[in-house]
Every structure is written in structure tokens, then in C-alpha cells.
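Q: What does the assembled structure look like for these inputs?
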Amino acid sequence: MQRMNYIQDYIESHKDRFLQELFGLIRIPSISSEKEHKEDMIKAAEYWKKSIREADADKAEVITTKGNPVVYGEKIIDPLLPTALVYGHYDVMPVDPLDLWESPPFRPEVRNGRIYARGADDDKGQAFMQAKAFELMVRTNTLPCNIKFMIEGEEEIGSPSLAAFCEAHKEMLKSDIILVSDTGMVSMDCPSVTVGLRGLAYMQVELTGPDHDLHSGLFGGAVANPVNVLTKLIAGLTDENGKITIPGFYDDVQLVSTEERDLMAKAPFDEEAYKQAIDVVALDGEAGYTTRERTGIRPSLDVNGIWGGYTGEGSKTVLPSKAYAKISMRLVPNQNFKTISRLFEKHFLAIAPDTVKVKVKELHGGQAYVSPIDTPGYLAASRALETTFGKAPVPVRSGGSIPIISTFEQILGVKSILMGFGLESDACHSPNENYPLENFYKGIETIPYFFKYFTELMK
Amino acid sequence: MQRMNYIQDYIESHKDRFLQELFGLIRIPSISSEKEHKEDMIKAAEYWKKSIREADADKAEVITTKGNPVVYGEKIIDPLLPTALVYGHYDVMPVDPLDLWESPPFRPEVRNGRIYARGADDDKGQAFMQAKAFELMVRTNTLPCNIKFMIEGEEEIGSPSLAAFCEAHKEMLKSDIILVSDTGMVSMDCPSVTVGLRGLAYMQVELTGPDHDLHSGLFGGAVANPVNVLTKLIAGLTDENGKITIPGFYDDVQLVSTEERDLMAKAPFDEEAYKQAIDVVALDGEAGYTTRERTGIRPSLDVNGIWGGYTGEGSKTVLPSKAYAKISMRLVPNQNFKTISRLFEKHFLAIAPDTVKVKVKELHGGQAYVSPIDTPGYLAASRALETTFGKAPVPVRSGGSIPIISTFEQILGVKSILMGFGLESDACHSPNENYPLENFYKGIETIPYFFKYFTELMK
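A:
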């Protein structure tokens, strides 16, 4: 597992251009959850198409869907060789609260060795490493297998169009492995491969009390306040042990063996550093589980947003008509997000008092995912990381969700390898998202080894 | 108690001008809680000064305070006659949610016999009746007593400068009665005089969990979410019987006798119509009390606003750093709002877990008020209303607060008479605030009788 000079040399000669090309992609504010960015989605897709085409792919196209388009590319060097499908996404999360950003989210800049911008890591920075690694292999004549690209624009809103896209293009997307760079690693000293992802059920609730805002003096105490009611309903969704109280919620949760929990506990984890990084004095979660277990093998319920009544400066003595919350649940194998969404809706409607009208809607969701560690895909990733990082990676379960990964397995019948280079400090989905330059270049270096070892292992 | 023609005649001859003059006042967006309206406060004060001066007052001035200015006016016809001090306010509440207004809040218009605008009732429409009734008495040479005006610009934010103003101008403000038109009546068929007002303690809380927004997948379940925590804290402030759980909260609540409660129960109240007017199928409040009692003689706790996390379109999987709420409590005699604010703060900090940092601040407050019904002031109001409405009014306790009224009693040693002409359907503090033209003109007609009877009763 020798590092090869031609890879490092190619990166060294082209590193500034790689970065400038990534910046071009980042500058497109392709926020998939906000309608006003529809045009930007097309621009980002076209940018990707151009990158793949210029790296000398046989095919590079922007394929329309019911939602945002998918970029598809391929280079088939020999039908008898294995084929890898690279998946990534060109869409990004919203940027608010904007005032907490130290530099504008769509004007990438490098500070202290890190790229600061929305999408710097998730997933423009990471997915673009795949584009540049592909270019490197093509230009250095070292492409060991066939490569396909599928880059979508709806990952951050739950990939609503991608399942249908996969169904419609099964033959075109045929592959032996799906490679994804959209996750993190424990640290630069402890490379890791993500072997588990949580599922997601994302709901929105709307409570209506009186049909218009009332004077809180004239009516307060006699008319149920929908915000007060909402706090009671949400408060009741979890108990004092951090357990979710929705009936049936845990029925399908796969219990992880004591043996496996012991193994997981061996991965390095510095709880003090973890707390310090987010500036909290105490952590909290489900009783009986460690911090890593709470995000890795257990489901959770978070209010992602709440609003109602007067939220401006000063005071307004209003008894609001409406109260809203966005509430999401992270799920683990074998919870089905559709089942959980229905259980949530049923329970929420059941516990709501008749003083308010309640609407519950599912915004999006996805299934959890686990991948075995004895496959050619995992072994190739392990060896690739060992080559460039000097030590074998640990397999970890992430708390995040890439809902489409389990869909790929269902529709395309192929496992995915989540070889990501992000760090916890990258602030994905937060203000000041960033991605270290070191990780960007190390990623580009590592990816060619993955294809090399994967091709060898498949022989 | 005969209605006198000259009053009705004067109103009839000048009704269009009265309305246009009120519209001029309403068009000034004098929202006291929003800093960008500082200039508008001055404009509204100057408008009032001009109105009083043009009605031939001896004095009409705009007096600066630490906050918004106070308009002072007087006409002393004979130092030996009684003196009444008219109190009102020229500031109004904020207007959001703006999209629910059927016409722009500061462009008054008459639809179906009602003036629609912010301040149409509270308190531009009502206070301006006092200005026009004053003009009427002066122009018809029927002013029976001395009259003073004190119109402030900070009522909707708790009158922070008015106590100091009263302290500084005790001699100037000397009077035998304070007359206020800033409350409602049961209905046009059931005139009423407000003899009780609730106090107010208005707080804002801010919770900080992690120091920046986190990815709810990577951290959800392991890090306390400040919005989830906030819902638990607020939910716990009231119990299943609608009682407020803050230790000591009820200690000073004046219990109302069964006899007085029975008397109150005789005032007409149509619960079905009440529910229909606000479109709710069920009411809720403190167990053991009727709807009228819940707003009249019992304290309450309402969330006036709540916000945190992502509140835009679609979904964002964020574990927010911050959560906020504006929480106000309506108080009854003899609760002290300063004591209650301190109890709230102490309790809220005590119940907050160490997973979050908590800030509590008091935004404003005021004491509750009760007035006896055997005084010349009450009797004069009762006879005045009987003259123009054809039946004696019922004394009622309002759930609202005019915090300054109890301050007047403390500093100036004078009781206030709350003779208001608003209706519950006026939507004060809400979108589409309105005020019936009939009430506006009936108010102008009734007020001169008050001064007449009051002067007679004081002989």
C-alpha cells in the first residue's frame, strides 16, 4: 500500500485550479428548499456537467426530473471491468441565520487553511473531490474501472425525485458499487468509514386556536393559547429519560448486541472536547446509552424550528391564533420512516386538546442504512484510507441521514460505500460551514486508490 | 336624564370633520415598540396638541420625557369648580401579521359602518372622542368644570416614563377624577363601566444550547436542543388544572367572595356566541372558574411569542443554538408585578437544566386596579351612559391591563373612571382592528353628560 508519486504530483500541479473550480460551484446558491433558487439549481447542474465532460467522460448530461435535474456522466473503458457509480449532490442547505456568518455563505474564502462557505463540505467540496479524482485518473491514464456519476439536486430535501429516476434508469445506472463522499471521519488521526446512517421522518405541525390574534388581556386565561398548547404537546413527546413517548415508536428498533456496543466504545471519543467544541457544560439524551450510541444506534426527536405570535422587538400582548413547529425524528434500522410518520401524526392528533385545530404534514423522510464490513467495497475503502492516512479506518455509525442510500439498495440492488472526509468541526448545515484544504486534497488523493483496490478485489 | 338636542345637533353638523380629523391621527404610524417610529411619535403628539389647542384650551403643549413625549392641555374655567383629568394614549400596537389585514393598517377606511385601522379603537378612536367632546362643550358654551388632558405615547409598552412625569407635575395634574376611554363595554345593548383591570408582568426568555446551530443528524439525541428544552420549561409553568406552578404566584391573589361572584354571573354572557366569534369549539382555563371569572378575577399566563431554529419554507435538519419566548402574566389585586417578575425569573432559572444557558428579562409590567362603585365618578359615568343608552351600565372587571391606572392612584391620589366604548369585536391588538362609527359618535355624545353629572354630584 505504497503512495504513488504521480497522484501527488498531479494534485500539486493542479491544486489552485481545483480550488478555483470548486469555488465556481460554491458561488451558485443552490438551496434546494427555497423556491427562488430554481434557476440556481440548473446552473449548478450545468456546472457539474461541464466538469465531468471536461475530464473527458464519454457522456455528461443534465437529465430533468419532476424536481431538480440529475447530472449523469460515464466513462466505460471496458465492459468486462467492474463499474463504480459515484453519487453526490449539488444542492445545499439554507443559510440562515445569516448574521452569524463571518463571510458571505456563497463567497468562498480560505481562512486558516479552511474553505468557508455553504457547501464547502456538504456536499460541494466532498463531491467535487470525486470529479477531480476522476480527472486525475483519466489524465494520468490510470483509470482502473468504469465510472459513472449521478449528482442530484434534492438531497437536502430528502431526494424526492431520485427514486423514480433510479427506477427509470436502472440499466444506465447498473454498477457494482456506489461510492459516496458526503460523510465525515472521526479525525485526521483516526480515519473512518461510515457503515451506518440514521433514517429520518421530518414533520410539520400547525396549531390554530382562535381564528385571529386576540388581546392577551381580554382573553388570556379563558381561551387556549395555541403556543402554550404546542409547548405541552411537544414537551410530552419525550419523557424524563429521554425516551420518545409515541406509542409503537421503538417497536422495530434493531437492538445492538452488547458485543457490538463494546466494540464501538473502543473508537476514540473525547467527551470534554466534544462539549467544548459546541460550548455546552452538559450533554443530554436517552438514559442508558453513551453519547456515540445516542447518535449512532438510537433514534432521536428534535424540534428543528418553532414559531408563533409576536417575535419582534419589545412586547406585544397578543394571544396568537397560530403556532407552528418543524419536528424531525432520526431513525435506526429497522424503523420504517413511513410507519413512524404515521405513528407521529396519529399520536399528535390524539394528544391535542379540542381547544385547537391541528394539521400534521410529513415534509420528507428516508430509511436508515447499515453496510457490512467484509465486502470488496468496504475493504477497498479501508485500504485506500490506510494508504493515504497511514492507518486503517474504523467503521462507525453516523447520526446523520442520507435517505437515498437505502433506496439505492432497494432499487438498484447495490451497496454504497460512504467514504467521507468531513470533520465534526466543518459546521455542516450551520453558519460558517467550512472544509479544510488538507481534507479536500487528501480526498482527491485517496479516491483513485479506492478504484484501484476495488478493481483488484473484484477480479 | 334627558338627552339634550344641542349635543346631538353639534355632532350631526360636524360628524364628517370629526372623522376626517381622527383619520389624520390614525395615518401616523405611531407604534411605540418599534424604534423606527420615533419620529411618528412626535408627529402624533403634535397632532393631539393642535386638536386640543384648536378646541380653545388655555394650554396645549408637548412635554418631553425620557421616552415619548406627553401631550398636556387644560382649560380652567373656575378654580372653585371640580377638575377632571382626561387620560389617553396616542401610541398603538405593532401591526404584524400584516398579510392578514384586509386594508393597510394606517390607511383608515370605513366598511360596513366600522372604521378599519390600527388604533381605530385602541386608543386613537376612543381618546379622540374626548377631544371632540371637549370641543363640543367649549363651542356650545356648556363646559361645566375644569378639564385637563394628559395623552401619552408609551401605553402599549407599559408607560415607562409616565410615573416620573406624574411625580414631576403633581401640581399641574391635580384633579378630582381621571376619565379614561380605553376600555370596552359588554355590548351596545348592555353598556358597562370597567371597574377592574388586571396587572401585567411581561417577560422574555432566551435559551442557548450549543453555541452554533448543529446538524440534527450528527448531534440529535446527544445534545440538548434548546427548543425542546424551552417547550418543557413553558409546559411546566401551568398544570393540568390550568393553575400556574410558579411557587408563591398565588400568595397575594385577592379572593373574590361568593356573593360578588354571584353578582358578576348575572351580567349577560353568551358562551356560544363568544366561542363563535373567535371560531373555537372549546374554551379552556383555570378549573373551578367561569370564562368571565378567568379573565376578570383570576391571573393567567400566555406565551405571546415563541421562536427558534428554522422557520422558513420546507425542511432544514438543524439542532438550533437558540430558543426564545415572550411570556406574560396577567395579574389581579393584590399581586405586585415586580414580585411576580422576580418569582418568574427565579423559578424559570431554577427549573432550567444545565444543558442550556438561560437569560430572563422583564420587558414591562403594571399593577392591577379596582375601583369602587359608590363614588361620584362611577355614578356620573353610570348616569351618563343611562342617558344616551337608555339603561344603566353594569360594572365589569376587564381582563386587560392599563398599568398606569394604579400608578395614578399611588402618585396623584386620584381614582380613574374607565368609561370605554369599545366592543369585543373591535379586534384591538389584532389585524383588522376596527371601531364602529356608531360607538365613536355615541362616545362623543356621552362624555359631556359625564362632566355635567360629575360636577353636579361634587357640589
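Chain A has two domains: 5-197+368-457, 199-253+299-366.
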